[in-house]
């Protein structure tokens, strides 16, 4: 369920309006996805802060825009972080890290990036940079600034005085439109924020018209097909988390020419893959992923994570006062400045450690923060009274491995 939305302008300034929202239109046949590359304004990679998401959280949990109580929220995170958690059981290539803080019974999650990683992302090889651009160019071809009737999504392709038919304007990755939604896994409520590529028709405050745009190499054989089916796992959960009902994939050549597009209904993707695997002759070609396993693993891990941070707070000598221990036992956070680090290693699993003082200072990075939480938000949540908050801590084994079966809440 959507809670609010906001835009980033060309200076990447956050504004609580829909000025950056784009609308879907069909891309022209054989579009050249390398067009406009030299005009690409690429926002530099930086630390993945949660500041703008917290401004949205504050907006929907306080004052005239209030839509829910913060005391009810178990997890606050960007969509990308939750996607990493959900897809971890099938991740066999890239590890990741995230920072965690526990405030008033709510887990706040932030992707952790080292300075070396940020530098590498800002200095990628030209070939990889070009392939990254193809995805943004596809978004430009597929979107326009103006809403169109649902029955006709063909836009006037003479705009922008461009030589490329259907070009929607030069790419500026500072500009984004984001939706903030609430959802639930088991008994844990989430507030999740993430970028939405466009709306197919007039946006009316619901997710029904949301569209996710993706590109992939044209499928030339069985190996390419299997690779694409594995990619659908990330496509699926990215859209699933924000309630995006439709994913449109543009298939391209290695040189960046669009060959065809295909539309996928998000909620039908798991069934589509199951039915497809049922027609395959070899067991080795079974369904490449099971969303139920992903949901179960995520639920199990978050239960373990909350249990760990609460227990750690209970054992901390600085939090041994009876009144604080009582709060911990009730599921409330003592609101220490403690920061935890979750590290995931493919084929091994995830571990949780508490950061020492020097590691926390590295997270703060000389900014006005408590851990990774901006000072203004920290002060606000600590000055508020959350007397009604109830945070359940389920029992969990220390082993955080893929679990069997789905949990209630999120629907497959």
TrEMBL record:
Ranges of residues in domain RAI1-like: 3-378
What are the Polar residues biased-composition ranges?
150-164
Q: Which GO terms describe its cellular component?
A: cytosol; nucleus
UniProt record, GO biological process: NAD-cap decapping; nuclear-transcribed mRNA catabolic process
Sorted alphabetically, which keywords does the UniProt record give?
Answer: Hydrolase, Metal-binding, Nuclease, Nucleotide-binding, Nucleus, RNA-binding
What are the subcellular locations of this protein?
Nucleus
Stretches with biased composition (Basic and acidic residues): 316-330
Question: Which Pfam families does this chain map to?
Answer: RAI1 (PF08652)
InterPro entries named among the record's database cross-references: RAI1, RAI1-like_fam
Q: Which reaction does it catalyse?
A: a 5'-end NAD(+)-phospho-ribonucleoside in mRNA + H2O = a 5'-end phospho-ribonucleoside in mRNA + NAD(+) + H(+); a 5'-end (N(7)-methyl 5'-triphosphoguanosine)-ribonucleoside-ribonucleotide in mRNA + H2O = a (N(7)-methyl 5'-triphosphoguanosine)-nucleoside + a 5'-end phospho-ribonucleoside in mRNA + H(+); a 5'-end triphospho-ribonucleoside in mRNA + H2O = a 5'-end phospho-ribonucleoside in mRNA + diphosphate + H(+)
Composition bias, kind Low complexity: at what positions?
Answer: 388-405
Q: Where is this region: Disordered?
A: 148-167, 312-336, 388-412
**Main subcellular localisation:** nucleus
- Tell me its cofactors: a divalent metal cation
Enzyme Commission (EC) number = 3.6.1.-
Supply the enzyme class, top level: hydrolase
| UniProt-recorded Gene Ontology molecular function terms | metal ion binding; mRNA 5'-diphosphatase activity; nuclease activity; nucleotide binding; RNA binding
The source's domain of life comes to Eukaryota
What is known about what this protein does?
Answer: Decapping enzyme for NAD-capped RNAs: specifically hydrolyzes the nicotinamide adenine dinucleotide (NAD) cap from a subset of RNAs by removing the entire NAD moiety from the 5'-end of an NAD-capped RNA.
Query: What does the sequence similarity comment in the record state about its family?
Result: Belongs to the DXO/Dom3Z family.
The name this protein carries in UniProt is: Decapping nuclease
Naturally occurring in which organism (per UniProt): Lentinula edodes (Shiitake mushroom)
| Lineage of the organism | Eukaryota, Fungi, Dikarya, Basidiomycota, Agaricomycotina
């Amino acid at each position: 369920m959507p809670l609010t939305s906001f835009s980033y302008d060309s200076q990447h300034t956050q504004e609580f309006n829909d000025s950056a929202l784009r609308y879907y239109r069909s891309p022209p046949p054989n579009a050249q996805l390398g067009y406009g590359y030299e005009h690409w304004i690429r926002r530099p990679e930086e630390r993945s802060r949660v500041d703008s998401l917290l401004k949205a959280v504050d907006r929907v949990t306080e004052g005239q825009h209030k839509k829910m109580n913060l005391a009810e929220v178990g997890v606050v995170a960007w969509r990308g972080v939750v996607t990493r958690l959900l897809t971890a059981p099938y991740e066999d290539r890239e590890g990741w890290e995230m920072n965690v803080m526990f405030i008033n019974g709510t887990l706040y999650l932030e992707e952790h990036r080292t300075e070396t990683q940020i530098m590498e992302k800002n200095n990628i090889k030209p070939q990889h940079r070009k392939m990254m651009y193809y995805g943004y160019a596809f978004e430009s071809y597929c979107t326009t600034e103006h809403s169109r009737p649902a029955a006709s999504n063909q836009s006037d392709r003479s705009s922008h005085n461009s030589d490329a038919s259907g070009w929607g304007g030069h790419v500026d990755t500072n500009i984004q439109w984001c939706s903030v939604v609430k959802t639930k896994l088991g008994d844990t409520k989430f507030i999740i924020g993430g970028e939405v590529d466009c709306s197919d028709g007039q946006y009316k405050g619901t997710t029904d018209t949301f569209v996710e745009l993706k590109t992939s190499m044209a499928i030339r054989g069985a190996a390419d097909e299997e690779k694409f089916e594995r990619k659908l796992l990330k496509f699926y959960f990215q859209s699933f988390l924000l309630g995006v009902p439709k994913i449109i994939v543009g298939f391209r050549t290695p040189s960046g020419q669009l060959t065809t597009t295909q539309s996928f209904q998000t909620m039908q993707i798991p069934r589509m893959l199951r039915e497809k695997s049922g027609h395959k002759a070899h067991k080795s070609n079974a369904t490449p992923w099971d969303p139920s396993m992903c949901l179960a693993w995520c639920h199990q891990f978050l239960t373990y994570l909350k249990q760990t941070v609460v227990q750690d707070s209970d054992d901390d000598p600085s939090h041994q006062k009876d009144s604080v221990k009582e709060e911990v036992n009730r599921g409330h956070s003592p609101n220490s400045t403690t920061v935890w680090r979750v590290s995931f290693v493919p084929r091994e699993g995830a571990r949780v450690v508490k950061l020492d003082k020097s590691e926390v200072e590295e997270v703060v990075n000389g900014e006005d923060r408590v851990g990774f939480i901006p000072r203004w938000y920290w002060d606000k949540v600590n000055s508020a009274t959350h007397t009604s908050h109830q945070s359940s801590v389920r029992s969990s084994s220390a082993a955080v491995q893929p679990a069997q079966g789905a949990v209630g809440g999120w629907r497959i």
